Amino acid sequence: MTDRLGRRELLSLIGLAAATKGTSAVTSPLQSLGDWLRADGVSRKHGLESCLERIRQMDPSIHAWVQVEPQPSIASGPLSGIPFAVKDIIEAQNLVTEYGSAIYKGRQSTGDAAIVHKIRSLGAIVMGKTQTAAFAFRTPAPTLNPRNLEHTPGGSSSGSAAAVAAGMVPIALGTQTLGSVLRTASYCGVTGFKPSYGWFSTEGVLPFAKSLDTLGLFTITPADMLDLWESLGNARGRDEDFAAGALEPLPDVEPEMAQAFQSAVSMLRGHGISVQPVRITAMLSQLKDEASLVMYYEGARFHKQRFEQYGAQLKDLADLVREGLQISEQRYQEALSFIAQSKQQISGVFKATPVILTPAATGPAPLGLASTGDSRMNSPWTALGTPAISIPMPVSGGLPLGLQLAAEHGQEARVLHTAKRLAAIFGTPA
């Protein structure tokens, strides 16, 4: 937590019960969003106070927040009184939006991003702004992983994922250009959901690569995510039986992830879920490369003027601009063409296996903060624009590992209902 909480009475309470470095900072399970939704107004007020207390106790060790200053609700609705966190590249009125960069320290938002306004219009309370990698790229935020403070929480939506994992808020907003929601959820042991490209307006969100930028959500469980999705006014959908596809062969993932993924697939088959092998590893591998190229090309051109003004002060972003400006228009168009062809190909795969299962990361959260991790398991689905979710898999000790579920564009309800069903089979919080 920074020195800018926005409420003097909070400052005097900072530092209580700070977690011990190197151990889990999560001391009790988060009340489910379903419980919040069923609670009356008095209970929700008490829940808000509990979240503030948890922030006071834990954030001095986790550093998930840029600013904590609960904003008054602008309406009543299904989310009345429920707090949510906002990643610091997303505008929120009367709060700072600093893009994770010292260059913009103290920059104040003058209005809400479209997604913030939407959630506030349903009665939710903006709790504050969460840490992000600078400009949502590689330079890490100071946030630590609540599951083990010696490890990265991922990036660039690190603060939002950590705030949910530590029980500071039941809902948080993130963004994903390659893997910043899904991978980070896997590392922190929470549920991260990226709907279809374009589902949510990105008005009021700092762009990076217009062809890839996607808003995402964090909750503790898949059931929470389904509740949130329906509370946002989206179609309820239904649970349904269909074949799933498990990625074979697995790409280069770490042994812990390979073992957990294969065990999860075996468990699902043992419970009567039809899981067929899907052999699209080569396509996904090339998609990963093409998505990275598109990000570099578009990101360099969007940030070019900022680079000309600030140069090396942008750190990793400066390197991206230098490299991205060297990519030719022809090579960029070739990447877009491959992505378009892959969208047609994956549509055919989804007809046979409506949900595809893959690891949500290459392994557990890396040690230290030098790297926010590898997005190769997520970026193909970002490029394809499909809905995808990361949910915790069963693990016997150690750091969390996420299972990623993807479905065809527009099939958000299918992904969410399936994720809830699988969590129940795994025995993880559903």
Helix content: 25-40%
| Strand content bin | 5-15%
Could you state the order of secondary-structure elements as H and E?
HHHEEHEHEHEEHEHEHHHHEHEEH
Measured distance between first and last alpha carbons: 30 Å
Number of helical segments with 4 or more residues: 14
Q: Within the largest sheet, what's the order of strands? A: 1-3-2-4-6-5-10-11-9-7-8
Rg, Å, rounded: 20 Å
Average pLDDT, all residues: 92
Number of DSSP E strands = 11
Question: Can you give a write-up of this model?
Answer:
The structure is a single chain. The protein has 430 residues and is α/β, with parallel strands linked by helices. It is 38% helix and 13% strand. The chain contains 14 helices and eleven strands. The chain has helices spanning 8-11, 33-38, 41-62, 114-120, 158-165, 182-188, 222-231, 255-270, 281-302, 304-310, 316-324, 329-352, 379-384, 412-426, and strands spanning 65-68, 83-87, 125-130, 171-176, 191-194, 214-219, 244-247, 275-278, 355-359, 388-392, 402-406. Helix 7 runs antiparallel to helix 14 and helix 9 packs across helix 12. The relative contact order is 0.14.
